[in-house]
Design a protein that fits this description.
The complex is a heterodimer of chains A (301) and B (251). With 301 residues, chain A is mainly alpha-helical. Chain A contains 15 helices and 5 strands. In chain A, strand 4 and strand 5 form a beta hairpin. In chain A, helix 7 packs across helix 11. The two termini of chain A are 31 Å apart. With 251 residues, chain B is mainly α. Helix content of chain B is 63%, strand content 2%. In chain B, strand 1 and strand 2 form a beta hairpin. The longest helix of chain B is centred in the middle third of the chain and has 26 residues. Chain B is elongated and about 70 Å long. The relative contact order of chain B is 0.07.
Chain lengths: 301, 251
């Protein structure tokens, strides 16, 4: 099924192909929650020849080894199966872009956790949901992964649940989730089984599923966020969450968010200074993390 | 937007012999060059999950090939890919053009492999699906190059601060001289929010502020002050763009 943003883009293209232009004001009024995606697409669609115009030009003069290579790879993949044809870099970036657009639109709408369940219960539910979602991807999920997932779910979806992260050695850390509510509650209810840093679904994990949807606000978007995070190593998760936290601190003081500025800020924080000696906090690694976070609309540069 | 195949495509598919049969193989070899690209995508999707011997045959019909003089023949996508590459200005850089074409072709096969459920449009309006893909790839390629450029250290200035001309003069004289296509190319190279503000102000000619929603600030959903700040940065960045510099030289 194609996403809302993809549908809107294709509708814009259809109108452009029919009439040669679109009224950008009208489109942003029609879908205000997707205005950023609409404007971005218009930036690249505007002024382009229509498909009919492109096909009426004479045949191009160009060597065919690029096309032959792609056909050859596709034939191999059709015969043998192959990761080459899974979502490529472009597909991954485009998906991040679209997801980011949808998350941004969601955060612009009002939401408050309602109902009688205490916040501690909701936190335990979402914490467990992350582990349950990842049980196919990982034999066991580490506490670090769950902590970073709930950190990003909070910032992506504005859940109002995981708002108490502190600066610890491996990045933003929710001490309360570990010792006071999410883990202890989930363990007591047998939603989770926890040994050291490894967390697995417990025998009663199924009970959680009837609550999770309402606390996650949009379970489908939350799932897509987890899909992005699930492809990262723990070192990358540490980088992304630390960079995100630092970027927010820079933005809040009106400073420009750049890899250099982030490294400067990390150097000024006692708990995080040592990170600068590690390869996952090189300027390049920070730059890569920033690119993803900007695409996901979790920070602005 | 309909999620059904257009009637001509649906009819052509209905007329095909069953996939994987000798009759179907004979049909494709005899009539393949007359089949719509949407039907070829349908066949390729069918062949990628089962009988695969005709996959390269149908694939070649879809993409075409270069003749002895390198002039492209047959196929349904190369003209669109190359036409879009020319529009974005990629054709002036052989390495960039190659990168762009390679990624476009890769994306065609990814979309076919993704299947009808995820990518139905490729069996509805193939040409437009290819064009949409060209747009997405162009964004990715230009962003990738911008990031690579940003990793290069900026050259040290050689002493003395350059006095920047009045930026309003840039807007009124230089921007007015630049053809829209060239201006768009330069704007697309800007950081995204600056690019959007520049697009709406200097290409769409929207007022920055005003009562109605059809202002730059209204469309972007940001304050007027925010728009002015973005435009100031955009002007500064455009000053360094090779396209704009060429025209500044004539000021």
């Amino acid at each position: 099924m194609i996403s809302n943003v993809e549908q809107i883009e294709l509708q814009m293209l259809e109108e452009y192909e029919r009439s040669g232009t679109i009224d950008i004001v009208e489109w942003t009024e029609r879908y205000p929650e997707h205005r950023a995606a609409i404007l971005r697409y218009w930036l690249w669609l505007k002024g382009t020849p229509t498909v009919d115009e492109l096909l009426s030009d004479g045949p191009p003069v160009v060597a065919d080894e690029v096309a032959n290579e792609a056909l050859h790879e596709a034939t191999l993949a059709a015969t043998l199966g192959g990761a080459w044809l899974e979502e490529g870099v472009a597909g991954g970036e485009a998906e991040e872009d679209r997801l980011g657009s949808e998350l941004e639109a969601l955060r612009q709408t009002d939401f408050r956790q309602t109902g009688k369940a205490p916040k501690t219960f909701r936190r335990a539910t979402v914490y467990t949901w992350v582990v349950a979602e990842w049980q196919d991807a990982f034999d066991s999920v580490t506490r670090l992964r769950v902590q970073k997932a709930t950190y990003f779910l909070e910032h992506a979806l504005d859940l109002g649940l995981f708002t108490e992260h502190r600066k610890k050695k491996l990045g933003p850390y929710d001490h309360t989730a570990r010792y006071r509510d999410a883990e202890p509650i989930a363990r007591k209810k047998q939603w989770l089984s926890i040994k050291g840093t490894e967390i697995r679904p417990g025998p009663s994990v199924g009970e959680m599923t009837r609550y999770a949807g309402r606390y996650l606000r949009r379970e489908d978007l939350a799932r897509r966020v987890l899909s992005v995070l699930g492809s990262l190593s723990e070192a990358e998760l540490e980088t992304w969450s630390t960079v995100h936290s630092a970027a927010r601190a820079l933005s809040s003081t009106g400073r420009e968010v750049t890899p250099g500025a982030i490294r400067e800020l990390l150097a000024s924080i006692a708990e995080w200074r040592d990170k600068l000696e590690r390869s996952n906090f090189s300027e390049r690694a920070i730059g890569r993390a920033l690119s993803h976070l900007v695409r996901l609309r979790l920070i602005r540069t | 937007m309909t999620h059904d195949r257009p009637p001509p495509v649906a009819e052509e598919i209905a007329d095909l012999p069953p996939l994987g049969t000798k009759a179907c193989e004979a049909y494709i070899r005899e009539h393949g060059d007359q089949l719509r690209p949407e039907t070829l995508v349908y066949l390729l999707r069918g062949y990628s999950s089962g009988e695969t011997s005709l996959f390269p045959v149908a694939g070649r019909l879809l993409i075409g090939e270069a003749g002895p003089d390198n002039r492209w023949r047959e196929g349904h996508c190369e003209q669109i890919i190359m036409g879009m590459a020319r529009h974005y200005g990629f054709h002036t850089d052989p390495e960039l053009l190659r990168e762009y074409r390679a990624e476009c072709h890769a994306e065609i096969w990814r979309a076919i492999h993704a299947g009808y459920e995820k990518k139905p449009f490729w069996e509805h309006r193939f040409g437009r699906a290819v064009k949409d893909m060209c747009i997405q790839v162009a964004r990715k390629v230009v962003r990738g190059r911008k990031r690579a450029d940003q990793e290069q250290p900026l050259p040290e200035s050689e002493g003395g601060e350059e006095l920047l001309p009045d930026l309003k003069i840039l807007e009124d004289e230089v921007l007015g001289r630049i053809a829209e296509q060239d201006l768009l190319r330069a704007i697309r190279r800007l950081p995204e929010r600056q690019a959007l503000a520049a697009l709406l102000t200097w290409v769409e000619d929207l007022p920055i502020e005003g009562e109605a929603d059809c202002t730059v600030s209204g469309v972007m959903g940001i304050s007027e002050r925010g728009v002015y700040k973005l435009l100031a940065k955009a002007r500064g960045a455009l000053m360094d763009d090779p396209m704009v510099r060429k025209h500044r030289g004539n000021a």
